[in-house]
């Protein structure tokens, strides 16, 4: 934890981020959101260049190459070989360039990784270049007020600030702050609802997640139920 946790405070976590579709494999359940159920935006997640459009065989080979590179990157990061990580990312992004669109999940993962590692190595100017490319892709995938987008913009703003790009950094940090402030208001509203009526809050949340109208039912009572049948005297 990064701060003090009060007694009774609710702790939540995301099972998985949108770039890593391993939900069923790791947690053994399927997401019921519309994007996952209807395959919305999958054409963007696996987007390829339009002009010229690569063949299916080329796309298949590039996906496998990207997966293999990600495995090498994970191994290099675990061994602390950060300059090797940067080299692998650069090479992979160069090969992906003529094949993948800027919203492709494999390109976004490479951009996220290389910008993070370059920032750790204090190569902020190059890191800011990759981070801005990452945000451009995110903005085509996320809702403008999505918290994940806000975090990505904040990180990119800070990277630009460290690189000396003060105006760009300030603009992005302000934009991120606006998104996260809206999210804070939303979570505070839900917190009040939860504190006032936990039972009703969970009913409403479940209905919303399943995209169903909520059916209002009586809150369960702790008192014993009245006798419905009477023994014949």
Mean pLDDT: 81
Q: Using DSSP, what is the number of strands?
A: 0
User: How far apart, in Å, are the first and last alpha carbons?
Assistant: 64 Å
Determine the strand fraction and express it as a percent band. Answer: under 5%
Please report the first level of CATH classification, the CATH class. Answer: Mainly Alpha
Instruction: Write down the overall geometry.
Output: globular
> What number of domains?
1
Q: In the CATH scheme, what's the topology name?
A: Serine Threonine Protein Phosphatase 5, Tetratricopeptide repeat
Helix content: 55-70%
CATH architecture descriptor name: Alpha Horseshoe
Number of helices: 10
Order of helices and strands: HHHHHHHHHH
Which value, in Å, is the CA radius of gyration?
Answer: 23 Å
Tell me what you see in this structure.
This protein has 233 residues and is mainly alpha-helical. The protein has a single domain, classed as Tetratricopeptide repeat domain (Serine Threonine Protein Phosphatase 5, Tetratricopeptide repeat, Alpha Horseshoe), CATH 1.25.40. The chain has 10 helices and no strands. The longest helix is centred in the last third of the chain and has 31 residues, at 166-196. The mean pLDDT is 81. InterPro entries: H3K4_H4K5_MeTrfase, SET_dom_sf, TPR-like_helical_dom_sf.
Provide the descriptors you would attach to this structure in a database record:
single chain; 233 residues; mainly alpha; Serine Threonine Protein Phosphatase 5, Tetratricopeptide repeat; 61% helix; globular; SET domain-containing protein; SET_dom_sf; TPR-like_helical_dom_sf
């Amino acid at each position: 934890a990064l701060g003090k946790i009060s007694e009774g405070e609710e702790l939540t976590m995301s099972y998985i981020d949108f770039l890593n579709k391993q939900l069923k494999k790791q947690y053994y359940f399927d997401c019921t959101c519309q994007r996952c159920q209807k395959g919305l935006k999958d054409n963007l997640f696996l987007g390829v260049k339009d002009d010229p459009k690569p063949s299916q065989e080329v796309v298949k080979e590039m996906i496998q190459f990207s997966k293999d590179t990600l495995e090498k990157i994970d191994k290099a990061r675990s061994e602390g070989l950060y300059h090797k990580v940067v080299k692998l990312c650069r090479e992979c992004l160069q090969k992906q360039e003529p094949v993948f669109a800027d919203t492709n999940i494999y390109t976004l993962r490479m951009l996220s990784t290389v910008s993070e590692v370059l920032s750790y190595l204090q190569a902020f100017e190059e890191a800011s270049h990759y981070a801005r490319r990452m945000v451009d892709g995110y903005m085509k995938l996320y809702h403008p007020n999505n918290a994940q987008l806000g975090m990505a913009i904040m990180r990119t703003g800070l990277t630009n600030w460290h690189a000396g790009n003060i105006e760009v950094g300030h603009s992005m940090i302000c934009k991120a702050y606006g998104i996260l402030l809206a999210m804070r208001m939303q979570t505070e509203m839900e917190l009040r609802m939860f504190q006032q009526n936990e039972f009703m809050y969970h009913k409403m949340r479940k209905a919303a997640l399943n995209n169903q109208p909520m059916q209002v039912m009586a809150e369960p009572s702790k008192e014993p139920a009245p006798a419905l049948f009477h023994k014949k005297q």
